[in-house]
UniProtKB/TrEMBL annotation:
Any single GO CC term annotated in Swiss-Prot or TrEMBL for this entry: plasma membrane
Region feature (Disordered): 124-165
Name of the featured protein: Phytocyanin domain-containing protein
Transmembrane segments: none
Keywords: Glycoprotein, Metal-binding, Signal
Pfam families: Cu_bind_like
Phytocyanin domain location: 22-121
Domain of life: Eukaryota
SUPFAM superfamilies documented for this protein: Cupredoxins
Amino acid sequence: MASSLAMVALLLVSCAAVAAATKYTVGDTSGWAMGADYTTWASDKKFKIGDTLVFNYAGGAHSVDEVSAADYAACTASNALQSDGSGTTTITLKTAGKHYFICGVAGHCSNGMKLLVDVAAASPAPAPKAPSTTPTTPSTTPETPETPASPSSSSGVTPKTPATVLAPPVKQSANAAGLRAGSWAILGLVGLATVQLGFF
């Protein structure tokens, strides 16, 4: 399972790298020719692994030679790492660091046909997240029932007050019932006497 996830992550990173690759036409409309300023042309570009350089020039009149830093400084193509003179040379930047290109025709490099590109190292891809193995505990908080919406006052219907439910009477002993009945009888007599006194 882990190896399958790693393989999928690698494929996704590869696809993303290919999709993000940029194709640069060296010198833009000037192409690969004498009189162009390749230092200025390269200065505002961010080269990265997977990008391609396309050199357009008259076949046989120029060449594209990838050379070492020392040969770049000396404008010599005698120990070129790779060389092409077909007229359209496409080079894929496969490694980070500085890459040096010159025209191998005598006198052309010293007249400006040289290009240095600095390729940025690829940023590491984020590791894929492993699925969580921590079990989730169910919530013990009781759910609050929803309160029914009150009727709108604009509907003209007055909401009814819910009826109050009384608790059932508490069962009392015979003595307590007798005391209560006696208390009511005394209160009744006192009230009756008060009423009669009020008439005299």
